[in-house]
């Protein structure tokens, strides 16, 4: 890396650390008496961040350092919000952040040396299938969908990991820029979507659907399939409205939340009140009322963030997410190997759709779907898998710049 | 490969659009939708704000507080000044009872949550006055309001007084009223009271306007058939419309009438003849120009006054009844005061308003007075002719009870038949006729003749106001 670029990255990470310390100081004095806990938390975070940044920069000179800095910035804001809402979950989340960073490092490394293992698309499909089918058999139901597996206290959502294997499956199938066996290919995709729908994880199904649609378009340039896919999305939406009670509830809550404020519209209305309260500058950290917002640590964390950080803070957060997507796209554009290119694109697209649907949902731009906000929502599996995905993205760029994979 | 890169770029454009749309929507939300949500009664933050905030004061036009927040034994209390005369107008704000009246309409301002300008908000936060609401200055004159309320002597009814050139509401009375200071203790009794003191009759009461509506019939006739001014009309004391018979009042006689006599003594049969000579659509347009069938643009919510129009209703009989303010036509007292004010204002539109200005805790004043309208509802010539006829009504017609010595009062009475018993008594007018300072509409429910019951109330309010402003 050039010294100038390196200096810029170092400056960014210093600013991130500074933001964290300021927020921690505010939180430390929040109750009126000084509490050192947020400062310890912040220091632990900063140490992990610095070690992660400098270690990976040292070991992987070809990596994209922006990925790690951007997601640390978001994670930190997430931790600050979590601590402010419920210090205990912030502590757990900090542990997950640490594990995530480790896995980021490992997946970057593994991906750099390994990525092109010739297992063929069917294996990727099979892994996706097993991942998605497992909660149907061993799983437990949480938040209205049966897509979780519990290991003792820890709940794991296999569909988070399936996003990666599904991206690899699509990339491997479509690396020749054409669909060889369309019946088999679309059959496989519909099996995946069917499993998600069966677990009543409709937000997940939607994510996978659009991700597949975008990757197929990118790889094959087939506009007919894209248009058909978009029509299919509308039809699926209408069918979902007919057959799934909670799709109906959510659509109605989106169209007119005021019809039933204490019932169907409750969540979205509380979210909108929080956003309205925030205004341009926000109420200030610690001065909002996240306790009024349901599911505030997971689905609605953006609303709580908006209330306290205001339009300016929330717009900045959206821009940071956008930069993350931009880096992902940039990585795909740098790569000549079409399998790697499509894999990177798949991961980026999953991030992009997920961020858009959850933020769009809580601000009532689109109907609400229960997906997490990557790096920010409370939850181990989301955090860990987001880091692994990002690690793969990082591995892909190292691989490409390292010149080890051409073709 | 190139195609792939092109597609990826395209996908990036799509994501850019999506993310920008998030920010744009949030901009729109923060700039436009936000205000309503903050004020929504479902918003729990509002009650929380209520507890933190010193609710602003409501002042009358002379700077006397009508409602203010004070401390009593360490707890915050809302203190009202004006008793039953102000109750239905000012309303109340209570966690259990909810909100009503001015306390409800200007709740956002009084709590200081409707401030939109982010820089001001930041300044208030820094200066530590964000926990103080804005003050609302009304156009109401407390003395006039009390005088008017007392004149009702507890009878059911309403009075609206306006400044004709501006639309400033000088008094807005609903009787019987209630005292907002004790509304919580009296709630049980008030809510069960058959006289419905909790309702603001002046803004929400819908009454047939009776003969007071003839002002509009006259305006239509003079606009579209100016020659009627010189015509004579014969009436046998009744008129047949599609088989129905409509009669004149008992004080009238069969015979020949000119326009002045017919208006002065309020002949139903002549006014139906006059009305029928104007194209139906034109008459509906005239009523709507005065404000019927449209939601009032005032700053307080006012029920919609209705003039029957096809296809919903509008047969010949209904139309004929409408010309004399009967049948299915309904009007609020505010609307009728507006009619009087329009004639007083040389035929120009008048929009009533009640909030003069809002003063923020930083001392910034926001004027709420709307710009005077230049829309001519009727030509100034027609307005002048109607005014002359209205002056004669008070001088020597049905409205003599409203006459004030030394001041020329213009008016029109009405006795609106209704299914609930005796006729509603109306008086609509303004004074002084040459240079109008005040326009009023008075209705007293089931009180009989407009002239003798509503007229004296109007007289009392007009003379009080005129002597106040010349003092």
Q: What characteristics describe this protein?
A:
heterodimer, A: 407 residues, mainly alpha, 3-stranded antiparallel β-sheet, 14 helices, globular, B: 471 residues, alpha+beta, Beta-lactamase, 6-stranded mixed β-sheet, 5-stranded antiparallel β-sheet, 17 strands, 40% helix
Describe the structure.
The complex is a heterodimer of chains A (407) and B (471). With 407 residues, chain A is mainly alpha-helical. Chain A has one domain. Helices cover 72% and strands 3% of the residues of chain A. Chain A contains 14 helices and three strands. Chain A has helices at 3-28, 37-59, 65-85, 87-114, 121-138, 158-173, 182-198, 202-220, 223-243, 245-255, 266-278, 301-334, 338-362, 380-401, and strands at residues 140-142, 145-151, 154-156. In chain A, strands 1-2-3 form a three-stranded antiparallel sheet, covered by helices on one side. The radius of gyration of chain A is 21 Å and the shape is globular. With 471 residues, chain B is an alpha+beta fold. Chain B has a domain at 210-354 and 370-469: Beta-lactamase (3-Layer(aba) Sandwich). Chain B is built from 17 helices and 17 strands. In chain B, the strands form five sheets. Chain B has a six-stranded mixed sheet with strand order 3-2-1-6-13-14, with no helix packed on it. Chain B has a five-stranded antiparallel sheet with strand order 8-7-17-16-15. In chain B, strand 4 and strand 5 form a beta hairpin. In chain B, helix 10 (214-224) packs across helix 16 (380-396). The longest helix of chain B has 38 residues, at 2-39. Classes of the chains: A mainly alpha (407), B alpha+beta (471). The A-B interface holds A 177, 214, 217-219, 221, 261, 269, 272-273, 275-281, 289, 292, 306, 311, 314-315, 318-319, 321-322, 325-326, 329, 332-333, 336, 338, 341-342, 345, 349, 352, 356, 359-360, 363, 365 and B 1, 3-5, 7-9, 11-12, 15-16, 18-19, 21-23, 25-27, 29-30, 33-34, 37-38, 40, 42-45, 48, 118, 121-122.
